[in-house]
Amino acid sequence: MTAPSSIDPAQFLHEHLAQASPDLLREMLTTFVNTLLSAEADTVCGAAYGASSPERVNQRNGYRHRDFDTRAGTIDVAIPKLRAGTYFPGWLLERRRRAEAALTSVVATCYLLGVSTRRMDKLVQSLGITGLSRSQVSTMATDLDEHVESFRTRPLDAGPYTFVAADALVMKVREGGRVVKVAVMVATGVNADGHREILGVQVAAAESGAGWLGFFRDLVARRLSGVRLVTSDAHAGLVEAIGATLPGAAWQRCRTHYAANLMATTPKSSWPAVKAMLHSVYDQPDAASVQAQFDKLLDTTQAQLPAVHAHLDEARADILAFTTFPKGLWRQIWSNNPNERLNREIRRRTDVVGIFPDRTSLIRLVGAVLAEQHDEWAEGRRYLGLEVMNRSRLNLVDTTDTAEEDTTTALGALSA
To answer: CA separation (Å) from 31 to 16, 75, 261?
Structure first.
């Protein structure tokens, strides 16, 4: 029932307070909104409702009702219709949308926090809203798209990014009427100020060399520079993409992933001893001691475990790449464990979805989660100290200069 064009505030409040209705706020808001719409329609017509006036230019012709979801619940908005032309309160409503902007922001935030559409429906019903379908939740969540896109395509101008880590997660989406697995590739880095950043996120059909190559080319195009070490697992396509797009950057094979690979080669009865010796390599106080302890590990396994010996010998340079950097950085750069913690947070938010309807919705949620994490890192304390970061860069410069001098001397000796 549509409210009259004017109300007596004192009588209105007296009647509703006397009833003590639990929906008082929603009823008051409905009456107030409909009164405003009726008054505005009278202004458009040039005369009050039901009044005869020579200044009238149009006539009212009933109402069309529309549900409007607000933070106070769902209210029934009665939009006046006119005999000539149309009237639409653009200051209050948006065409083809039934929720106010603030409620849309709340729903988008709940979506980002991993609230499922089923729980979302129960949540809004507890607020007095008639309910939200999955399509309505998805439509409201699209407000995140612009934010996520600007985050994913921003220039990487806080470099040099001395240390970078890369990893991929496998998730399910619907494509062509069937459920397929896709790879979500994520890269993080430490900027010049010592803070961690989310460098990029992309979705590829599979974790392949082509996918990783396109991912790193995009990072370089966005001005990723100064990379000296990339930590990741031993995916062949990933390692090749690092070499092709980041010349001069070393590769650190994640020690946690390598231990799992080595365990598959080691007899079950021998694994505890091999694992203990491998851990002792990482426990050494300096680079020289690390290399010496690794030599002992090779000597121990050479006779009794030749397959393990060959595995260790082949991977030596890759798993000990961290030793060229200051000791204070080793724990942060010798494995992908920091990225694994980030992956667990992504999984916590995406597991409630299960199967995404398309890649766009996958990027929307994962990108929003990563943007949120990026902001937390920027506001938090430094991941690496500036002093040790500067020393790591100076050590690399000294090493490069020494290598160039040695090369020049050797070439001179050959010429002589």
So the answer is: 12, 9, 69
